[in-house]
Amino acid sequence: MADADGASSHRKLALIIGNNKYKRRNNRLKHSVKNARKLSHLLKAINFNCTTYCNIDKDMMDNISNFAKTIMDGDIVLFYFSGHCRQVDGENYLIPTDDGRIENDIDVVDLGTNAEHALENLTDKKKSYVTIFILDCCQQYFLKDESTSNRK
């Protein structure tokens, strides 16, 4: 649906998270926060209402749940996470920057944010026009005793 000017008649919302200042030195990233801020700036230029968080050190689900409460039927919703993610038993977990507490996969499950649950949280409450869910997680996340010698 577009009006005479070609602008969308749907409200545009974005939740953007960039994590790069991980406590564990070998997991620090260089561009996640910069990428998040740049995307936020670009989306604002096309009339998105952006909520941006950088370097979240605790469970991100509170931020996601609070954002989800603002979604109304018919909204265009975009979620973007740039940072570390780790897969445990086929499930993907977004890693908070306070990763000094994460020593094994059980800690990942307990302290990380389940990506599928995050997506469900954004889509279950209200029926959006479209939900775009982007995970920008390109480097391997290392637990406390894992080697970085084979880092990809």
Major sheet description: 4 strands, parallel
What is the overall number of helices? Answer: 4
What structural category arises from helix and sheet content? alpha/beta
Total of domains: 1
Q: Oligomeric form of this entry?
A: single chain
CATH-level-2 architecture: 3-Layer(aba) Sandwich
Query: Kindly, what is the distance between the CA atoms of the first and last residues, rounded to a whole number of angstroms?
Result: 43 Å
Considering DSSP H and I runs of 4 or more, what fraction of the residues is helical? 25-40%
Biggest sheet: strands side by side, in what order? Answer: 2-1-3-7
Query: What is the fold-level CATH name, i.e. the topology?
Result: Rossmann fold
**Poorly predicted ranges (pLDDT <50, ≥5 residues)?**
1-7, 148-152
Mean pLDDT equals 88
Q: What share of residues are in beta strands?
A: 15-25%
How many β-strand stretches? 7
The CATH first-level class comes to: Alpha Beta
| Rg result | 16 Å
Overall shape: it is: globular
Order of helices and strands: EHEHEEEHEHE
Question: Would you write up a description of this structure?
Answer:
With 152 residues, this protein is of the alpha/beta class. The protein has a four-stranded parallel sheet with strand order 2-1-3-7, with helices on both faces. Strand 4 and strand 5 form a beta hairpin. Helix 2 packs parallel to helix 4. The longest helix has 14 residues. The protein is globular. 31% of the residues are buried. The N terminus and C terminus are likely disordered.
